[in-house]
Amino acid sequence: MNARRAEGTSARNETLEKFIQDYGQKAFRFAYKLSGNVEDATELVQEASYRVVRAWANYDASKSLEAWFLSILWNAFVDSRRRLRQRKWVALDAPVEGRDGVCYADILSDGDSNPARCMDDAEVMRTVRRGFGRLSSEYQAVLHLCDVSGMKYQDIAQTLNIPVGTVRSRISRARRELRNQPAMAKLAG
């Protein structure tokens, strides 16, 4: 009986180790989107990983490990937000949304011959980021998981521990709220 239990524990530990290696970057991107900076995102991923290891015996293998992990990450973010005031600045090493592999430092140091266009691009990104930052954390989370991470509604629901219908309505309301912000309306017009 003990040998069988030890085999099961060993297999689950291997699964956990492989999962953290495979999904670490995805978790970091989600944490970064929530926190807005590298240091806090790193801390969130570390805290979530610690919580996963601590609660590993309670993991239900019939459910998505990714959704469980991201749910724990979300809860770590909510807990940290309760304790600390969220920073309102953007780090230069922050990735620019919609431009793969480009960070704000790249835009500022871009050798583009048209500095006005670089400034316009940077202003658009700031406006979008500001608009996103004005959304509630619940709206930010569903938009990030859906539109940036490409998660399915069912997985988002499992991650955030809410019904699928709530995911759909939050995504719809978040997109509408983002579009209706005055600064965003100016971009569209």
Question: TL;DR of this structure?
Answer:
The protein is built from nine helices and no strands. The protein is mostly helical and 189 residues long.
Residue-averaged pLDDT, rounded? 78
Structural class: mainly alpha
Main sheet makeup: none
How many H/I helical runs? 9
Globular, elongated, flat, extended or rod-shaped: what is the shape?
A: globular
Keywords:
74% helix; 9 helices; Arc Repressor Mutant, subunit A; 189 residues; mainly alpha; 2 domains; Rna Polymerase Sigma Factor, Chain: A
Structure description:
By secondary structure, the chain is mainly alpha-helical. The chain has two domains: 1-85, Rna Polymerase Sigma Factor, Chain: A (Orthogonal Bundle), CATH 1.10.1740; 104-189, Winged helix-like DNA-binding domain superfamily/Winged helix DNA-binding domain (Arc Repressor Mutant, subunit A, Orthogonal Bundle). The chain has nine helices and no strands. Helix 1 (2-35) crosses helix 3 and helix 7 (153-160) crosses helix 8 (164-179). The longest helix is centred in the N-terminal third of the chain and has 34 residues, at 2-35. The N and C termini lie far apart (69 Å). 20% of the residues are buried.
